[in-house]
Write a structure and sequence with these properties.
Length: 143
């Protein structure tokens, strides 16, 4: 069971951070083999601790349940929400995975343009300053 959970979690982390199916302007896949398509290995996955709670299913013969797919669903949502929470002072909403560095950088740059009217190469302002700017802008919008 542990192997099923680890594999499913690796799949979930991959979907959240790495796995993407890009296409060119002609609709041809740009990741047609594992040479071009990154899958996470044990080196990219955090060390995990497992605990088990056995609760037989009362509706199936033998009380059996599926277990391997459980780890696939959680990581994309958890990681996307964690990144969104970290970027909340910038007003950023995460709406897709994978959370590639380029995707996150583009969101930050778009937020910076909203705050300052010009792109910058670093965040510069503290979170408190950005929140205050956002509050003032909302106040002006409501006035």
């Amino acid at each position: 069971m542990r192997g099923q959970h680890l594999g499913a979690l690796a799949h979930g982390f991959g979907g959240a951070l790495y796995e993407e199916l890009p296409y060119d302007e002609n609709g041809q896949p740009l990741a047609a083999s594992f040479k071009d398509y990154f899958l996470p290995t044990v080196m990219e996955i955090p060390e995990l601790t497992f605990d088990h709670l056995v609760t037989p299913n009362p509706f199936t013969p033998g009380g059996f349940k599926g277990a391997g797919e459980t780890g696939t669903v959680g990581p994309p949502a958890v990681l996307a929400n964690a990144v969104e929470d970290a970027l909340r002072p910038l007003g950023i909403k995460i709406r897709q995975v994978p959370l590639s560095p380029m995707y996150i950088w583009s969101l930050i740059q778009s937020a910076r343009k909203r705050f300052s009217g010009r792109p910058t190469t670093h965040l510069g302002n503290s979170a408190a300053e950005l929140l205050e700017q956002e509050r003032r802008q909302r106040h002006r919008d409501l006035a």
